[in-house]
Amino acid sequence: MKRGKGMKFVGDSRVPDKESRDKIPKDYSEYPGRTEAFWPNFLLKEWLVGAVFLIGFLCLVAGAPSPLEQKADPNNASYIPLPDWYFLFLYELLKYKFAASEYVVIGTVVIPGLAFGALFLAPFLDRGPERRPSRRPIATSLMLLGVASVIWLTYESVAGVDWEERAAYSVENVPDVEIDEEAPGYQVYSQNCLSCHGDSLQGNPGMAPGLVGIPYGADQIKDIAVNGIGQMPANQFQGTDEELNQLADFIVSINEQASGEGEGDGGSEEE
Amino acid sequence: MLQKMYDWIDERLDITPIWRDIADHEVPEHVNPAHHFSAFVYCFGGLTFFVTVIQVLSGMFLTMYYVPDIVNAWESVKYLQTQVAHGQIVRGMHHWGASVVIVMIFLHTLRVFFQGAYKKPRELNWIVGVLLFFVMLGLGFTGYLLPWDNKAFFATQVGLEIAESVPFIGGDLKTLLAGDPEIVGAKTLARFFAIHVFFLPAALFALMGAHFIMIRRQGISGPL
């Protein structure tokens, strides 16, 4: 049986060279320096590191509840898509002129294909025997360039997001009110207001505010419906005075319902 | 008692060599943070595996509540998040684990790259590792749709448009993923669920097995 000093290996691996291949791992005494048995000595230390890591991870989980936005609404035309953070660099790349519209293939296939293709084939592109980063400047600088561009693109993308506005998409900001779709006021609402303010008065981020928890009385609501306010143009309401009254009563009743419930469940910051 | 059980099995299956292959090996000095603190960079691969285990376990529990259809998916996630005991923790672990695993796999890739550890004889293990990275990104992409909220829906629509822009096969690729050339809907959700829960994990396990067998066969790369 061949062991230890006489054996030849492929590179610094433990795969024996053809001549001496007998599948027996290198003898413990052959490793340089202070080696340690994996089982149980090293595994015990790894276990401790893993436990500390798990505690940190659970602190993250407990401190930041995972987000859930409002239920998918394919008709929501004003929603600004945002991918998960590790795809933001690709998303940002597609905003550059040379990688968008008719050149989109450059952004979606050519650049990522070259980058990830080079990563995939790195062992066959960088074939020299040197392992130190400073001794293989081309591989090192290309990798640094790639990492820097991914970080830069991600940063650019994150900086361009209005996080406060996005918070309005969260499910927590949906007022918990029951809307009586049979109410006469709702019929008026759906004809005049629904297209902007949403089918349950939730509003449309970037376009129109939600109508639950507004500081207006019936008369002011009537005035706003006819004359507009802020970005809302005048004459959005088209109907009779009776319908206008029904509409205002409906919105006021929803608001009263929300403020009544809001005190109970503790989610009343909106009011 | 345990020793007797072990001996009983060992007599029939000769499991000691298997055990030796898995656990009985030396940890060289240059990868041991107890000797050189800078060797903590060697932890990233192990932490990637650790978070992957968290992902598998939390994901298994999530499927006990999650319903993969467009009427109930969002409601089931909301129910899990707000009504089920510890549901928020389990979903939180899966949600944040998805990010942490990407961070860890990224750091592990950089460590291996800058140390030139992918060079001969470890080219194949690098290839498998990059494939694992892609599978992980695929899991992230498909898992993002499953809560069926606005963020999920519209991000997936963008992702499918990116798939569609691929020359020649783009249209077919989108149809394969979404189940329909135009609509992102019920079929899309069912397919992403299947891909996320069956296809990609299967690929992940196979590749991880290959990754680990190759590490044990070749040993960890020597010091720089």
How helix-rich are the residues of chain A, as a percent range?
Answer: 40-55%
Going by CATH, what is the homologous superfamily of chain B?
A: Cytochrome Bc1 Complex, Chain C
Proper CATH architecture of the largest domain in chain A: Orthogonal Bundle
Binned strand content of chain B: under 5%
β-strand percent of chain A reads under 5%
What is the terminal separation of chain B in angstroms?
47 Å
Domain unit count of chain B: 1
Query: Number of helical segments of chain B?
Result: 9
The tally of strands of chain A reads 1
Query: Using CB atoms under 8 Å apart, which protein chain pair has the greatest interface?
Result: A-B, 79 and 83 residues
N-end to C-end Cα span of chain A: 82 Å
| Unreliable segments of 5+ consecutive residues of chain A | 262-271
- Assign the structural class of chain A, choosing from mainly alpha, mainly beta, alpha/beta, alpha+beta, or little secondary structure: mainly alpha
The structure class of chain B reads mainly alpha
Membrane topology (chain B): Multi-pass membrane protein
Subcellular location (chain B): Cell membrane
GO molecular function (chain B): electron transfer activity; metal ion binding; oxidoreductase activity
Function (chain B): Component of the menaquinol:cytochrome c reductase complex.
